[in-house]
């Protein structure tokens, strides 16, 4: 059973400035819910019950969103706003075990994941990046758990990373992998390169923000030097591969939406609006009249 998921949410969100000067990018609304709620839904629906947020200064509101606001509940109860009360309670009850740790200084994704070591302990865990929403049924992480279960029979136990084919001109935005196909949609990864130029990229298979790791990753996160001024998660993954640990890439089924930049964010808003029968009509009408 993999129960713990680490959600690194400490970044400044520079690609979404200026709004992210005061609103964490994870709390930007996709319709009337913050981006992070879509991510948390995926994690919970995939069977995780312990969520570990790696936060930084000014990001406390992310935790508050999932916490109990007694004042608000009392206010709504007194005014008999049952539906709203129910809406709020559903969010409060979503995460069974919520914990957080601070990454005081931004030092990269690798460093953020390492901050969670004590809270994770000695068990396999997931890392889920809040920028990438994946609309999928079954949820992307659940698909990855299935793949992990299938591969777990082998020793040492595997790690699984979500992959997606990207356009050649986009490879420099991602960790790119090289590997061989071992099963339908499953690659055994031999090499990972963080944000290569199109010429250097070994393929167009990009790492998406979903990972299932064995706890040994922490040993390797402590050994890596900084690359591009930060501790890169991909460098620790490469060290694990070099040490003989099996790392698999899985091409998930579903629609990925990158909410970390203005264009992708807008696409995500439209994507979820189109899934809502009422909003779909509003959007269609707007498109006709615009
Ligand atoms: C991070 C990782 C990268 C991965 C990407 C997925 O990059 O370093 O390997 O492909 O997330 O979103 P970032 O987007 O934080 O620059």
Walkthrough of the structure:
With 290 residues, the chain is of the alpha/beta class. The chain has a single domain (4-167, 204-261), classed as Alpha-Beta Complex (Spore Coat Polysaccharide Biosynthesis Protein SpsA, Chain A), CATH 3.90.550.10. 35% of the residues lie in helices and 25% in strands. The chain contains eleven helices and 13 strands. The chain has a nine-stranded mixed β-sheet, sandwiched between helices. Helix 5 packs across helix 9 (233-242) and helix 10 packs across helix 11 (277-289). The longest helix is centred in the C-terminal third of the chain and has 14 residues, at 262-275. 1-O-phosphono-alpha-D-glucopyranose binds next to strand 11 and helix 9. 1-O-phosphono-alpha-D-glucopyranose (G1P) binds next to strand 11 and helix 9.
What's the N-to-C terminus distance?
A: 51 Å
Tally of helical segments: 11
How many strand elements? 13
Beta-strand residue fraction: 15-25%
Hetero groups in this structure are: 1-O-phosphono-alpha-D-glucopyranose
**Superfamily (CATH H level) name:** Spore Coat Polysaccharide Biosynthesis Protein SpsA, Chain A
Radius of gyration (Å)? 20 Å
Q: Kindly state the mean pLDDT as a whole number? A: 96
Query: In the residues, how many domains can be counted?
Result: 1
Range of helix content: 25-40%
Q: According to CATH, what is the class?
A: Alpha Beta
Q: What is the multimeric organization of the chains shown? A: single chain
Low-pLDDT regions: none
User: Largest sheet, if any?
Assistant: 9 strands, mixed
What would you say the CATH architecture is? Alpha-Beta Complex
Order of helices and strands: EEEHEHHHEHHEEHEEEEHHEEHH
Shape: globular
Label the structural class.
Answer: alpha/beta
Under CATH, the topology can be stated as Spore Coat Polysaccharide Biosynthesis Protein SpsA, Chain A
């Amino acid at each position: 059973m993999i129960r713990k998921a680490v959600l690194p949410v400490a970044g400044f969100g520079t690609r979404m400035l200026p709004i992210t000067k005061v609103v964490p990018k994870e709390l930007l609304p996709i319709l009337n819910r913050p981006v992070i709620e879509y991510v948390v839904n995926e994690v919970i629906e995939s069977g995780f019950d312990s969520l570990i947020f790696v936060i930084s200064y000014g990001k406390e509101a992310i935790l508050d969103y999932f916490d109990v606001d007694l004042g608000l509940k009392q206010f709504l109860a007194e005014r008999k706003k049952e539906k709203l009360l129910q809406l709020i309670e559903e969010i409060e009850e979503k995460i069974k075990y919520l914990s957080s740790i601070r990454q005081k200084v931004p030092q990269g994704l690798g460093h953020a994941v390492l901050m969670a070591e004590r809270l994770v302990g000695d068990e396999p865990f997931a890392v889920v990046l809040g920028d990438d929403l994946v609309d999928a049924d079954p949820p992307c992480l659940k698909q990855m758990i299935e793949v992990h279960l299938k591969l777990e029979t082998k020793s040492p136990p595997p790690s699984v990373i979500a992959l997606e084919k990207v356009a050649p001109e986009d490879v420099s935005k991602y960790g790119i992998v090289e590997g061989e196909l071992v099963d339908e949609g499953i690659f055994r990864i031999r090499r990972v390169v963080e944000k290569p130029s199109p010429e250097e990229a070994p393929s167009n298979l990009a790492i998406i923000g979903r990972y299932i790791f064995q706890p040994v990753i922490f040993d390797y996160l402590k050994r890596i030097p900084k690359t591009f001024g930060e501790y890169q998660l991909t460098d620790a993954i490469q060290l694990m591969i070099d040490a003989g640990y099996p790392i698999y890439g899985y091409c998930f089924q579903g629609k990925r939406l990158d909410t970390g930049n203005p264009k992708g964010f807008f696409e995500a808003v439209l994507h979820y609006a189109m899934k809502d029968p009422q909003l779909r009509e509003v959007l269609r009408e707007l498109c006709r009249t615009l």
